[in-house]
Amino acid sequence: MRQKIGVAILSIGLVILLASCAKTPYNAQNAIVNTASTPALAHALNVKENSQKSGLSYQIVKSLTVEVGPRIAGSQGDKRAVAWAEAKFNELGFDKVYKQAVRVRNWERGFADAKVVSPFPQVLAISALGGSIATPEKGLEAKVVMFDSLDSLASAEKATIEGNIVFLNTRMERDRAGSFYGQVVPNRVNGAVEAAKQGAQAVIIRSVGTDNSRFAHTGIMRYADDIEKIPAGAISTADADNLEAMFSAQKSAQQDIILNINMQAKDAGWQTSYNVIGEFTGSEKPDEVILISAHLDSWDEGTGALDDGAGVGIVMAAAKLVKEAVGQPKRTIRVVLYAAEEIGLVGAYQYVRTNKNTLGNIIFAAESDFGAGQIYQLDTGFAAAVRNDPADLYSALNMMGVKLGNNTTKGGPDVSMLPNYGVPVIALKQDGTYYFDYHHTPNDTLDKIKPEDIQQNQTVWAMITAYMAMSDFDPRPAPNTK
Ligand SMILES: [Zn+2]
Prior knowledge:
By secondary structure, this protein is α/β, with parallel strands linked by helices. The protein contains 13 helices and 16 strands. Helix 3 (38-51) packs across helix 9 (305-326) and helix 4 (56-67) packs across helix 9. Bound molecules: zinc ion.
């Protein structure tokens, strides 16, 4: 205990030192802002100390994954998640808890099965992609044609593809920022349309993932109105390796690889889901809003622990810890748990429509939606003239292992449209080295979350939330507003 107090005093000392160093290059006006923000920093450091003794974010994601589990938009699980979120906000003492209705299209996975019929008969691990139509009831059987990218599919002879099953086989590399996801995910989203344009009967993709397991990675796919709809699935990376190797093991090029796919997914129609919102109302400036968020829905095969139970736990806990440490915040802290992110940011767009006249009140918005790996960087989308004003906060975050990054972020997925309305955003970049091992698989479960990692997230979010809710720092409007 004594040691901890010593460390706290030491870190305050360092922060003041660093803050005063960081101040030097700024003009006098900015220096005044920095001095004025010192009480806000004291609140941030206070909540930091409390957070480092709290396992609240882990307890919340545990509660969500154990008591609700899978919660695909519009499903019974989703309805239970909405009830869970309302109850949890109330249990945590939020002083305003409410919902916004969101119309969502519900999709049911059903049975899925794939097997190589010849020349090397065996089963492949497959998952239907979200939104896919079904195969005929007895499945479909055809020759497999393999491509290493959407581009090579598009430039191939149509005659070689017509009536066949396209196999899109692009590997995803592992890195801390998860930056290869954006390069590979078009296979999943657009593969069916591109394969159908070439006359294919179905498409299967190498899972968009970095593991070598037999869990396939699902995720949303799209059809185009004027292109024939064909069934779309993902096979696990291990099965993709196996299928790829069959092409080299063929005795001759004339020996086709015949695959049988049976997927019985279905569109289950319109349902109502909800954005669930909890607030601690500002005591001095209730109309100035700190918006922190995550998404409540998940895919259906895992329990949605990393995606995005972790985010739900982090932002709910951060707000609660701020309330405990500082009392009623000066500005309003609003925690938004968005509906239906996975099927196309549906809840987030509804939020913008419902709140279009008050978006200008948001001081900044942020979403946690990248698992529970430790945060290493803060990117901002703040008005450039004041971006460096909270130098004391940036220094304090540095000591949490979080360095200041760029000022060009659009924030997380569900807040990415807000900068277009002038709303400042931040993104807290997390270590995503292993995130895509589990993303959208049955293996996205609570055991993948390290309590010490999610606690670091909780602490960083709580520090920023406390600082912003207790200071006059105002980064509006976002740069490059339309
Ligand atoms: Zn997510």
